[in-house]
Design brief:
This protein is an all-alpha fold and 184 residues long. It contains nine helices and no strands. The protein folds into two domains: 3-44; 67-183, Four Helix Bundle (Hemerythrin (Met), subunit A), CATH 1.20.120. It starts with a helix and ends with a helix.
Amino acid sequence: MTPSRWWTETVGVIDDAIGTGTAMLLLMIATFVVAIAWYTFPAWVPRRLPRLPRLRLRRRKTRAVPPEEAVETVEIDTLPTMPSGSLVTLADRYAAEGRYAEAVRERHRAMVRELVERRVIEHHPEWTVTELAGAAARARPSLDAPLRDAGTIFSDIWYGERPAEPAHDRRMRELSASVREALR
């Protein structure tokens, strides 16, 4: 039996049994009930479903994460609690390993951390790199050019997904030195 024939026969049986008008009314009521249930979904689900008994498994002890690995797992938008000097050292290590994208990220974090440490700006995790550069430039106009350039390099690599090169790391070193010089 083909699907179209099955459909035709099914509709015919429903029409003979209850009539087309009644079938449409029941279909509309069912649609309305499903829509209301969908709209209010979290409210009618119990907060805590009954749990079935389960086997108690012994938990494995987790190993302590060395500080170097802990820094790698920090999200881009968060400001690590490490001092800016440690971030620069980490960036140098990444650059020596040929991981230039990570080196650029850590150098940018070091610049932000240094601005926060010297109380030029307050850290706001929701800021974009452009907003951060603008806030620092309002506090100290000499920081505008280096931070804007550093933000462009960072955004091109991390958000624009451009491949990082040694030239990017060199430029970030220069910009970091300019920022340090402007903060003196």
